[in-house]
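Re: weekly structure request thread

Next one in the queue (168 aa):
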Amino acid sequence: ISRFDPSYGGFSDVAGGTCAGRDYFGVTVRPGDQAVFLTTGTGSLVRWLGPGQCVGVNAVTAGIGTAVRAYDNFLFVGSFAGPDINTAGSVNLSRLLPDGGAPSTQNVQSAGQVWEISGPSSNVLFAAGWEHAVQRRSRIWEYDPSGGSWSPVLSGSNDTPLYAIDVP
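Done, posted below.
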């Protein structure tokens, strides 16, 4: 785990300790207290407390956590149920309280992966990834805050996996 310091434009290493020995796929900083939350290769969330200090927060789903986005009131996590990142599994998108509690999880794709969640607020939110069932077709899902559910809004052409999205 590295931290970017804009004052000198470089990175400092904050790994080791209880943060070591994990496979991290996503990171987000919660606006309220600057806590960093990370998804891991076990489908769980880890909260960064300080250099070399991480603590488990919540098991999201069985599988691999690949994306996370924090807001003051919720964490949104993307994961898929596959044995490793090269094998497609069932895509799940979850919403949960930042400091624990049972997640609200929705299966959004029978085979694929989600790689990033982005949006300016928990009311305007998108997830990006792809579906394997149709030769890695890119996919974007939109979150509906009134219903608390995700639905597909964009599907790309075959063999065009989508890894990132930014919604300012």
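The chain has a mean pLDDT of 81. The chain is about 0% helix and 55% strand.
Next request, please.
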